[in-house]
Amino acid sequence: MEPDRPLIRDVFPDLIAELTDLLESEGERELAICAWDLRLVGECGCGDDFCQSIRTADHPEDEPYGPGYRCVPLSPSEGMLILDVVDARIMYIEILYRPPMHRRNES
Question: Which of 50, 81, 83, 89 is disulfide-compatible with 72, CB 3.0–4.6 A?
Answer without folding.
Answer: 83
